[in-house]
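Solute carrier family 12 member 4
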Amino acid sequence: MPHFTVVPVKDQAPSCYDSLEGINWVDYRDTGQEAPDHHDTVSSDGAGIHKEDSPFLNSSDSASKKNDFYDKNLALFEEELDIRPKVSSLLSRLVNYTNITQGAKEHEEEESAQASRRKTPKSPNMGTLMGVYLPCLQNIFGVILFLRLTWIVGMAGIIQSLLIVLMCCSCTMLTAISMSAIATNGVVPAGGAYFMISRSLGPEFGGAVGLCFYLGTTFASAMYILGAIEIFLVSFFFFFAMLNNMRVYGSLCLSLMAVVVFVGVKYVNKLASLFLACVIISIVSIYAGALKSISHPPEFPICMLGNRTLVRDSFDVCAKTVIKGNITEPSQLWEHFCLPGNMSTAQCDDYFIQNNVTEIQGIPGLSSGIIKGKLSGDTPSELLSLMLILEKVGLSSVDAHGSVETFFMYVSADIATSFTLLVGIFFPSATGIMAGSNRSGDLKDAQKSIPVGTILAIATTSLVYFSSVVLFGSCIEGVVLRDKFGDAVRKNLVVGTLSWPSPWVIVIGSFFSTVGAGLQSLTGAPRLLQAIAKDNIIPFLRVFGHGKSNGEPTWALLLTGLIAELGILIASLDMVAPILSMFFLMCYLFVNLACAVQTLLRTPNWRPRFRYYHWALSFLGMSMCLALMFISSWYYAIVAMVIAGMIYKYIEYQGAEKEWGDGIRGLSLSAARYALLRLEVGPPHTKNWRPQLLVLLKLDEDLHVKYPRLLTFASQLKAGKGLTIVGSVIQGNFLDGYGELQAAEQAVKNMMEIERVKGFCQVVVSSKVREGIVHLIQSCGLGGMQHNTVVMGWPYGWRQSEDPRAWKTFINTVRCTTAAHLALMVPKNVSFYPSNHERFTDGNIDVWWIVHDGGMLMLLPFLLKQHKVWRKCNLRIFTVAQMDDNSIQMKKDLATFLYQLRIEAEVEVVEMDDSDISAYTYERTLMMEQRSQMLRQMRLSSAERQREVCGSFRANISPDDLQHKFIEIFLVKDRHSLVRMGSIYSDEEEEIVDIPAEKVHMTWTREKCEAEKKIRRKAPENFRELMNQSNVRRMHTAVKLNEVIVNKSHDARLVLLNMPGPPRNNDGDENYMEFLEVLTEGLERVLLVRGGGREVITIYS
C-alpha cells in the first residue's frame, strides 16, 4: 500500500506567466495617481485612430488594490485582480464618471481666465424642455415663417401649401425617428449628425456628410442674415430690397456678427433666451390677431386699379381725383399715371383711363369665408412668371395696354415660381431638428430627452405650420398673400398685418429671431468644421482644427465667414434657401441610411433605448429626402451629390490603390480582398466587437462528433453575426492520415449543416492533440477575419480517470487562449443544453458578475436572447459585495450601468459575510491534496514508491484508514452532474519519464511507527496547519460562491459565471480542476466565461 506525507507548501513566486495578460490591451492596474476628469468625447491619436474615453479602464488608488488581493471570499481570482478588478471597484469608478462634453460651455468658462479654470465641471442637469424642446423650436422656427409662408400660401393655394408642409415635416419626422434611435444607442457626444453618421457608417460617409452639414449650416447663416436685412430695409427704412442693397448691408451685418462670435460666444448663448422669447411672442401674436379678426378685422385697405394691385406707399388717397374746397383736383395717383396738364386734356395711361380705382379690405378676417376661393389657389398660371403684375381674379377689368413707365406702380412678381421651387424655399423652415442631439452632453438623461423633445418639437412646429397655412388663407386677401415685400400694405410684413396688437410685434420679433438664428449658425458651423478637422480624416482641413488658446475655432470661423459671404453675394433669400435645403436633405438622407443599415445588420451594439423605429421607416425617410432634393432643384441636387461623392472618394482612396478583377467572380474577389485588407488595419472598435468563434470539437473512433450540442450552442450565439470556425484534431501522421482528415471534415460539415451553423471547418492532423489545438488557436482565420473567442467542452470524468492527459489538455488550452488574448467559453453539462427546436417559455438567464474582464458576461446573454430558444427568458445579473462594500450603492450603480448599456435586466447584489473557513472546506481541501499526492505516487516508478514508504508513516493516518480514504477519494463524484462521457482527447500520447531505481535503507521498526502515531494523535490541531493555506483559501472561495449561486440560481435555465484563471504554478493544475468542480456543483447548465483582455461592450453610440 503506497503512503504519502502531507506537508505545508509555500506559495510559489509569480512566474513570467503573468505577463501574458493585458499586453497592449485593457490595463486595469492601479497607478496610484489622481485620475483626470473624464469627458464623454472622442479623441484621436496622431495616426487618426479614434479612441473613446471609458469610465472603467483606469483603476482607483493603490489601497483598493491591496484589499483586492487579500479578499478571502475572492481567493480564486486573486492572481488576476490586477487586470480583472472587482465589480465594486468598477462601479465606484463608473459612478464618478460624467459625460460633459468639450464645447461652447467650456469656451465660455475659458474666457473668464483663471477664475473659471478653477471651476469644477457640473453634472449634466438639463431636462427635456430646456435642453431639447425649446432649442429645437428656436432652430426650426425662422425666417421662412415670417417672410415667405404667406407668399407660399398665396402662390400655391391652401391645398398645395398643406401638401408642401406635409412633405417637409414628414421628412423631418422620419429623420427624427431614425436620429432618436441612433442618439439613444449609447452616449452621443457633441457633434450631432456628423458624429452619428461617421460612427455609424464610417469616416468616409461621416466626412462627406459632415462637410455637407457644415456647408448647410454656413449657408443657413447667410439666409438668416439676408432675411434680417430684408426686414431691416423694407420695414424699418422703407428701402427697396434691391440686390446691391442686400449685398452691402448683408456684408456689414455678417462682419459684425463674426466679430461678436469671435469676441465672445457667451454673449450669443446668453441672448439665446431673448431670441427664443421673440419667436414665441411673434407666433402668439399671429394667433391672437387671427382670433380678433373674427369680429374686428384690422384695417389694411388695398388699392386696386381694375384688377391690378397698386403699390400703396406711392400715393396717399386711393382715388383718381380729390375734392378740396368744392374743387375737384387730380390726386397723387393721377399724377403718376398722367402727364402734367389740364385734367380734361391730359395724356394718361390707357389702362388707367379705362378702369376704375377701387379699395378692398386686405384682411377680411377669419369669418369672411374667403378660404373657399383659395383652396386651389386663385393665381392664374400665367402669373407665376417673372415680372408679371399681381391681379385679383373675379374683379372687373378692361383689358388695355399700359405704358412701361407706370409699371413701378403695380405690385409684381420678382421671380418665376412653381410648386417645386416653393418646396425648396419652404424646406429650411423644417430644419433644425439636430439641436437636441448637439446638446446631449448637457442633458440629464439624453436617451430619454432627445427622442421626446425632438419629436414633440417637430409635432409642435408642424401643427403651427399647418394652422398658419389655414389661418393665412382664411384671413388675408389673395393679392396681399402674393405680395412678397408688403408693397400693397405700406411696406408692412404681410404676416404682421394679421398680428395683434401691432404689426411692429412681428417686425421686431422676426428681426431679432433671424439675427439670433444667424448668430447661432455662425457659432455652430465653425465648431463642426473644427470637429471634422480634429478627426484628421481630411488632411487639407487639418489647419482648421486649431484656434485660440481656449479652443475657439478661429481659422474655421474665418472660412465660415468667407463661405457665408458667397451666400450674401447671391443677395436673394429665395435662391439661397434651395442651396441649404440640398445640404440638409443630404445630411438627413444619411441619418436615415445609418439607422436602416444598423437595423438590418443587427450588430450586437445596436440596442437603442428608443423602440419606435423600423428599417422601413428609415428607408421611407431616405427616399423622401432624395425625392425632395430633386423636386426642389435637380441641378442643385446633382451638385450636392457630386460634392459629397468627391469627398467620399477622397477619404476612401487617399494613398490607397484599387484593383479590379474581371467578371462577376473577379469583382467578388476584389471586394473580399478589399474588405479583408480594411479589417487588417487594426483591432475592431468596441462597438463592432462580436464573438468570432473557434469551436473545438472531439471526434470519436468513427469520426462522429461526440458533443454536437457545442455546435447547437454556437448557432444560438450567432445573433452576433460573427465568424464561426469549427476545428478538430486527429492524432497521427499527416502523410498517412490525409484521407481520414477529409472524412473528418465532411463529418463536421454535415453536423454543421444539421445544427444550422454557418461558418468554416478546419481539421488538422498532429502527432499530439495538445499541439494540434495550439496550432488551431494560432493559425485559424485569415487577416482581420480571425477568431477572438474559443468554445471548448468540459473534460467529463477527469476525476475517475487515472490518465491525466484529459485535464492537462484542458488547462493547457485555457493557458493558450489567455496567452493569445482570446475569450474562452466552456459550456459545462453541454448535453443538457437545449436544442434549436426547443423553446423556453419562462425562466431566467443568471449572470454572476464577480470580476470585470471586458464585459463578456453582459454581451453573451444579450446575444442568446436574440435566439428563439432563449427569447422568453428573463435576464438577472448578480454581483458579489464584500463586507466593506456599500451594497445599496452598488445596486444603484449597477442599474445605472445597465441602463447606459441599454440592457434590461434585474439587478441583485449578494452580500458575502467574512465567515471563518468551515470544517467542510478543510475536508474538501484535504481530500483534494491527498488525491493529488496519490495520483503523483501512482505515476512514480516502483523505486520511487519504495523511497516514499518511510515518509508515509509521518502522516497521521493508519494504513487501514488510508486505504478507506483512497477508496473514498476515488468514488468522489460531482453530486449533481450525470454526464460521464470520457475525457476530451483522451487518446493523446503522454510521455512518462522513468526515474532510475535507488536502494532505500529502511531503519524504522513497527514499534517505532506505533510510538510515532501515538505522539501524532496527541496534537490533532496541527493538522490544518500542514495543508497549503492558498488551497484552503481558494477552496473556501469556491464553496462560498457555490452556496450563494446554488441558493439563487438553482432553477435558472442557464448560469453564466466568471471562470477563474489557471494557476501560474503548474504543480497546482489538479487542484484547479477541483476548484472548478466545487464552484459549479448543483447547477444544471453552466457557462464558464473568460474575457480576452479587452472591452467588448460600450455605453457609447
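thats it. Residues 237 and 337 are 26 Å apart (CA to CA). The two ends are 67 Å apart (CA to CA). bye
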